[in-house]
């Protein structure tokens, strides 16, 4: 099913999304990669506030290439999500609404997605040029010194993603290969 | 004896870094087009057509194909009748990478020290593999290597008794474990034999081969074809979202090895299998 979803996302909306759904995201998302996650963790450990509201928001695991003059952003595709797994359950328990990345997640993350009615989307890895065109605005809001790894606030329109892990814990990466096999046998 | 200015090498490397990050080689493009036709999963087909669109946008608007513009791996074959003047060769190469990544709006993804991790801010140093050859030309291949797929690469120090079956098992294990993380459809580079580092180098070099060519060694050619069929039966598919096209090609190189060993390296590359080649 192809559908449009607004970000920030409510738990009710997240609950309706099912692994395998093709979805277009519109709204505001925040970028963060390894270094930004490490810093957010340190910020929380120190009892301070995160640089952005986490409730209902989406984190996009992405560090863009530099923007050419006159462009909003450079190439902007997803990076491997599993490197963030160590930090993710805590953010989910704080209300993180959705994550956008590519690749597998740990069992601890899957459990936290279920517990918090969140959702993990995959964007197309290696389609950074195409995805950059779905980003209308980009602004560094924290950790400027991290360069490509700074936290950016992005405004996106019809940003294409696929639901990989839904709020029931269904995991498309686990089921897709099997489903493909089955279809092949039938067809 | 022919003389070549170091600055000429810098200029070529700079251009090749930019070229490789915006345009795939014609054989890679063709392999993606063929994959889109052969894919039978609907989602897989959709992903593959978006990858083609992505390539078009990259070339037209000069936006890197992927935001991970890689660590620059350079294969350079220097003819023994060439005399390089006006500077040190390795400095000339790194200067080319520096200029290419800065002027080409490419992402700087290299950290100075693997533990301290301070960004060098110009994507240097490159990883350079030299070879001295006959003649008076310099043959350069620039390979910007992304780490989503690099991280999923593996070395297996097999026993001679593991034989061909062991090699097949190793390749399938690496591909299965890589799954969606390596941005399939992948190119699978394999090195068999040599020593620990030699097999890894062959696996990396195998990624630069024209995809329309198969190994000239008959049993390796058969192995490449058999492994491609096996990999494409795994169901991982484009983006790891299920489908037929898990890999576009399996390229294998081999080298003599020790009586006691059977090293196998599997270097996985995503569909953004970049390389630019020039001869000076
Ligand atoms: S694995 Fe390749 S396509 Fe995927 S993000 Fe890295 S460089 Fe890009």
Shape of chain B: globular
Number of helices of chain A: 6
> What fraction of the residues of chain B are assigned to beta strands by DSSP?
15-25%
Bound molecules: iron/sulfur cluster
The span between the termini of chain B is 14 Å
How many strands in all of chain A?
Answer: 7
Short key terms for the protein model shown above:
heterodimer; A: 187 residues; alpha/beta; fumarase; 5-stranded mixed barrel; globular; B: 280 residues; 2 domains; 4-stranded mixed sheet; 8 helices; binds iron/sulfur cluster
How would you describe the overall organization of this protein?
The complex is a heterodimer of chains A (187) and B (280). Chain A has 187 residues and is of the alpha/beta class. Chain A has a single domain (2-186), classed as Fe-S hydro-lyase, tartrate dehydratase beta-type, catalytic domain (fumarase). In chain A, 29% of the residues lie in helices and 27% in strands. Chain A has 6 helices and 7 strands; from the N terminus they run E-H-E-H-E-H-E-H-E-H-E-E-H. A 5-stranded mixed barrel of chain A has the order 2-3-4-5-7. In chain A, strand 6 (135-142) and strand 7 form a beta hairpin. Chain A starts with a strand and ends with a helix. Chain B is α/β, with parallel strands linked by helices and 280 residues long. Chain B folds into 2 domains: 2-20 and 65-145, no CATH class; 148-278, no CATH class. Chain B contains 8 helices and 10 strands. Chain B has helices at 6-22, 26-38, 42-61, 89-103, 147-150, 163-178, 196-206, 218-231, and strands at 2-5, 71-79, 82-85, 127-133, 138-145, 154-158, 186-194, 247-257, 262-269, 276-279. Chain B has a 4-stranded mixed beta sheet with strand order 4-2-5-10. A 4-stranded mixed beta sheet of chain B has the order 6-9-7-8. Chain B is globular and about 55 Å long. The interface between A and B is large, with 47 and 48 residues. The complex binds iron/sulfur cluster. Iron/sulfur cluster (SF4) sits between chains B (66, 68, 146, 148-149, 182-183, 270, 272) and A (77, 125-126).
């Amino acid at each position: 099913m192809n559908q449009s979803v607004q970000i920030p996302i409510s738990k009710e909306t997240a609950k309706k999304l099912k692994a395998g759904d093709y979805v277009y995201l519109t709204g505001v998302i925040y970028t963060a990669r390894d270094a930004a996650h490490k810093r957010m963790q340190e910020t929380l450990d120190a009892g301070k506030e995160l640089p952005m509201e986490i409730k209902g928001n989406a984190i996009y695991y992405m560090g863009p290439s530099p923007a050419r003059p006159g462009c909003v952003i450079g190439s902007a595709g997803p990076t491997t999500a599993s490197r963030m797994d160590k930090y993710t359950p805590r953010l989910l328990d704080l209300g993180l609404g959705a994550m956008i990345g590519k690749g597998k997640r740990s069992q601890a993350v899957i459990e936290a997605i279920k517990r918090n009615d969140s959702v993990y989307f995959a964007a197309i890895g290696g389609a950074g040029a195409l995805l950059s065109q779905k980003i209308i605005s980009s602004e560094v809001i924290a950790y400027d010194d991290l360069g490509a790894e700074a936290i950016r606030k992005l405004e996106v329109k019809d940003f294409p993603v696929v639901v990989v892990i839904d709020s029931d814990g269904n995991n498309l990466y686990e089921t897709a290969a099997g489903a493909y096999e089955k279809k092949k046998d039938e067809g | 004896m022919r003389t070549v200015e170091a600055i000429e090498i810098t200029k070529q490397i700079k251009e090749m870094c930019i070229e490789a990050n915006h345009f795939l080689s014609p054989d890679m493009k063709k392999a993606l087009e063929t994959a889109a036709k052969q894919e039978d999963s609907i989602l897989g087909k959709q992903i593959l057509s978006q990858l083609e669109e992505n390539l078009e946008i990259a070339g037209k608007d000069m936006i890197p194909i992927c935001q991970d513009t890689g660590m620059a791996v350079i294969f350079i074959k220097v003819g023994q009748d060439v005399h390089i003047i006006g500077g040190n060769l390795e400095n000339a190469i790194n200067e080319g990478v520096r200029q290419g990544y800065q002027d080409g709006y490419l992402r700087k993804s290299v950290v100075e020290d693997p533990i301290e991790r301070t960004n060098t801010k110009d994507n240097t140093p490159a990883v350079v593999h030299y070879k001295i050859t006959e003649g008076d030309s310099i043959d350069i291949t620039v390979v910007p290597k992304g780490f989503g797929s690099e991280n999923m690469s593996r070395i297996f120090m097999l026993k001679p008794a593991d034989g061909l079956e062991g090699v097949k098992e190793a390749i399938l294990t690496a591909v299965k474990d890589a799954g969606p993380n390596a941005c399939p459809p992948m190119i699978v580079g394999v090195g068999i034999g040599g020593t620990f580092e030699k097999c890894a180098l062959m696996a990396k070099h195998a990624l630069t081969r024209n995809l329309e060519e198969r190994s000239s060694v008959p049993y390796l050619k058969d192995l490449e074809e058999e492994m491609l069929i096996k990999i494409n039966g795994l169901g991982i598919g484009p983006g790891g979202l299920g489908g037929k096209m898990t890999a576009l090609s399996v390229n294998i190189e081999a080298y003599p090895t020790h009586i006691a060993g059977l090293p196998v390296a599997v270097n996985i590359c995503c569909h953004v299998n970049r390389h630019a080649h020039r001869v000076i």
